[in-house]
Design brief:
By secondary structure, the protein is of the alpha/beta class. The chain has a single domain, classed as 3-Layer(aba) Sandwich (Rossmann fold), CATH 3.40.50. Helix content is 41%, strand content 18%. A 6-stranded mixed β-sheet has the order 3-2-4-1-5-6. The relative contact order is 0.21.
């Protein structure tokens, strides 16, 4: 009994504070991602509630004729703008501390470990509800790596990218696709941060 998950990082976003939209370049990335999934059989599509993920998901969903539901467990670990008055430099400093100290709880948001557990619990629940189905999950780069560092050994991660844990904040490009299979409550990493569909 297995379920396949395609974890898609949202498309490029506008470089502003808050719950921003995707950029014109992001719209192009989302359309290329839609073309990729249009050649596959996708049963279910779920998005983070943040605008950049929802807009990406909507472009893909319209192309593959599927509806999108939202799940708050797919939101990012933390978001610039959640803490009033926080500068971008302060946000990056907080983000980097969360990445290095996996149990550090930022003033708003989750620790890296807790965020990864949140995604794992979401995927496990979905795998029980939808065995043998294929799902597209539109979420965030930080959340994907938080999940992976929780669920896979350092050796497995380094096989995908040298020094994975140190480099993790730069490893999941916009609209990249990470393929995870869940079988009997165990996760297998099939493919990581693939961007081949964006270069076609």
């Amino acid at each position: 009994m297995s379920t396949d998950f395609y974890l898609v990082r949202h498309a490029e976003k506008e470089k502003r504070v808050g719950d921003v939209s995707i950029s014109p370049e992001g719209i192009k990335q989302a359309r290329k991602t839609a073309n990729h999934f249009n050649k596959m059989s996708i049963d279910i599509m779920i998005s983070s509630p943040l605008n950049r993920a929802k807009q990406t998901a909507q472009i893909v969903a319209e192309a593959i004729h599927i509806t999108v539901s939202e799940d708050s467990r797919l939101r990012e670990r933390a978001n610039w703008g959640d803490s009033p008055g926080q500068t971008f430099e302060e946000f990056i400093e907080m983000w980097n501390r969360c990445t290095k100290e996996r149990d550090y709880m930022p003033p708003v948001g989750d620790s890296a470990r807790k965020a990864g557990e949140r995604l794992a619990s979401c995927l496990l629940e979905l795998s029980h509800q939808h065995p043998y189905e294929t799902m597209v999950i539109v979420t965030h780069g930080g959340l994907i790596t938080d999940f992976m560092v929780n669920e896979f050994t350092e050796d497995e991660l380094n096989h995908k990218h040298p020094n994975f844990i140190i480099s993790q904040s730069n490893l999941v490009p916009e609209c990249s696709i990470t393929h995870i299979r869940c079988c009997n409550d165990r996760f297998t990493l099939i493919d990581f941060a693939n961007t081949a569909h964006l270069t076609r």
